[in-house]
Amino acid sequence: MRKKKLFFLFAMLLGLSASAQQIGEWQVYPSFGVATQNVAVGHRVYGVASGHLLCYDADDTSVRTYDSMNDLNDIHIQYIDYSAAAKRLILIYDNGNIDLLDLDDNVQNLSSLKESTLNNRTVNCLSIDGTMAYVGTGFGFFTVDMQEGVIRDTYRLGVEVEALTAKDGTILIATDEGIYRSGTADLHLLTNWEKASTWSRYFNRILVFNNEVYVLRGTSLYRLEGTRMVSLLDGVTYLTTSGDQLIYMTASKVYVQTASGQQVVEQETATWQSVSYGGNTYWVSEGLDGLKGYRLSGDTFAESVGSIRPNSPVRDLFYRMQYVDDRLLVAGGINTPYAIYNPATAMYYEDGVWTNFDEQTPAEQYPALHCWNTTNVVQDPNDPSHHYASNYRTGLYEYRDGKFVGLYNSDNSPLQQINNYGLNYVGCASLQYDDEGNLWMANQETDTIVRILQPSGRWLSLYYDEIKGTSILDDYLFTTSGVKFLVSRRVEGRGFFGFHTNGTLNTVRDDKHQLRSTIINQDGTSYSPDRFFCMAEDMDGRVWCGCDAGLFVINDPTEFFDSNFQFEQIKIARNDGSGLADYLLSGVAITCIAVDGANRKWVGTSSNGLYLVSADGQELLQHFESDDSPLLSNNIQCLAIHPATGLVMIGTDQGLCSYVSDATEAEEELRGGDVVAYPNPVRPDYTGPIAIRGLTMDGEVKILSSTGQLVWNGVSNGGTLTWNGHDKHGRRVSSGVYHVVANTQDGKKAVVSRIIVIK
Fold first, then answer.
1. For residue 324, which of 375, 380, 388 has the smallest C-alpha distance?
2. What CATH code is assigned to 670-757?
3. What span, in angstroms and rounded, lies between the C-alpha atoms of 208 and 539?
4. Contact, 532 vs 494, CB < 8 A?
5. Hey, which of 19, 414, 488, 744 has its CA 20 to 30 A from 751?
6. Cβ neighbours of residue 88 under 8 Å, at least 6 residues apart?
7. What is the pLDDT of residue 338?
């Protein structure tokens, strides 16, 4: 135990000094895994990958990444383009927010579209003409003066603009009613536009090159001649202009056209999603293969710059997370019957590096299967290179060193298909190892849900009639009391399912088991939630339960099977003289719960952000929402807390962020070498909290001057105490050496450390 805790402490200090993260600081972890767009700007190329911005400098080969915490004003870029006249990029986010970014990384935000109440304000297209950006939407289009940084005009035309282009002051728009060219009269009325073509719908792109109009409609490329649409090529997947070139492509050819002629290059373009030209280089966004550079040599594209892909999560998908020592395991799918097809994302984060599991091999080996929605990832307790991942509809995946090595489904295991759908339609979720190294899982929508893979390779199956056929089972919880819980989210068999095997996995005859779909609290109030989300055991053995009716507690899991069992719903006194109290977070949909080193509860919700609740539930200590904090979204899907650093990892529907809390796992006993302070020394420019770590639970800490006078004292949160650098009168302390005297809760042992303060 001591060796493990010292390793955690060393990792904590190394991580803090490397990242300079302090208590109360936030960080985001944007994905740059899937390259989708790019624009060449001189010797730089700006790329969008998984909705986030990066910049590659061809002169020095450096890569700069941008995020919403430090640089930009939003996440998930939908469109990017550059105005050479204004020397600015325009970034349009999927919620309508707009950033203007200059080449010195100065950013100006234009949020009026995002904040507007206009109907049909979804952005469909973008075109640059001089310093003006033309933005097509569901209601028409508007213009942005990129030089001045203002929205100039809004044209509510009463039709959706599917594609548009602007060239030398002339505007063409493609709509459901046809293609229109701007006239000389008031352009706010569609009747004042010249109708250039009666062809309508399915327009992907329209642009002008060499004074000719090109239109991509579906996968067919046309040239607009007068009012005639002249067919040029079918099977076109992409069309753009970049520099002085018109570029379009099919699945097997790239067409490069200049004013002097056209060149056709045989090229496999299955991964090509965006092309721009600059510095004699064709920059190509190639999905999972990243951003690459090519030179056109004769009739061949030769790769000149290898994959530009910053280390990051492969996608902004975070459905389930857990820490195993210093390694954060992530499943990025979703466990749902709805048609949400997230790629089978599995990954882990350790020492600042993301490792993304092999996706290509299972897709190639099982082309008939739909490898979507990874629901859980677990690590073999005896082999850190060995992992399993569950999939909502295709079974259990096995990995070694991140490489796919096998699939368990109804062909080679007891895992059953769902309703004989064929194609090995095998639902798998809720992976969890027990202390004996048995891997538990839920075989969804079958008659036998509980499946176990033993270390020997033997399979066991436990039948419980209450959860037969259940479709959405999210998590197992193995409590210290021996009671096991399985969360069954919705529809048939929903509720909190508890069972106790009495130490025998080979039979269920002596098992206790109970499904509770109705929640009755200590006051006799009854709830019938539609969705049951999560359970977590705290340090006192209490189980905290989240559902769409709120937050509930099982005080003694062994009583869950009793006929008169009741949940506790925490009451918080109003303290207004009325003698009344309110239930804690009543009616708030609780999606995930994590317990920190001070036994406090971090509570994630589906739409109300993130709460921090005191150990006993009597106080709401903090509440974070996306409007008033760096939290990426109010829809929290999962939480994981590093016990040694107090780092709270927050998985949302918009990606991953973290918060450095003021609580860590407590030491079992005080040891002089374990009690450390950070930062130390405290330099003049630092005004944040000073963390003292390596303490026992609820340990008293005294800060003494060099002469032994009491400056300040407090009690630790778990293994950490935070001091604001002020004395007990609220005054900032002067320069000097301050002694830290740490005591156990009972005062039987003390250790001394020191902090140097420089003013």
1. 380
2. 2.60.40.3080
3. 67
4. yes
5. 19
6. 82, 100, 101, 102, 103, 146, 147
7. 60
Q: Which amino acid is at 515?
A: L
Measured distance CA(160)–CA(121) in Å, rounded: 9
pLDDT of residue 100: 98
| pLDDT score recorded for residue 298 | 87
Query: Residue 627, class by beta-carbon neighbours within 10 Å (0-12 exposed, 13-18 middle, 19+ buried)?
Result: exposed
Residue 196 one-letter amino acid: A
Label the pairing between strands 450-453 and 439-444: antiparallel
CA distances from residue 114 to 48, 111, 225 in whole angstroms, order as listed: 20, 5, 37
* Predicted confidence (pLDDT) per residue in 145-183, tens digit: 999 999 999 999 999 999 999 999 999 999 999 999 998
The 8-class DSSP code of residue 466 comes to: G
| Greatest C-alpha distance within the chain | 93
Render the burial of 23-44: b for 16+ CB within 10 Å, e for the rest.
beebbbbbbbbbbbbbbbbeeb
Cα–Cα distance for residue pair 301/281, rounded to 1 Å: 10
> Residue 449 has which token pair?
């849900």
Rounded CA separation 41/55 (Å): 10
Tokens standing for residue 141: 């289009």
pLDDT tens profile 622-672: 999 999 999 999 999 999 999 999 999 999 999 999 999 999 999 989 987
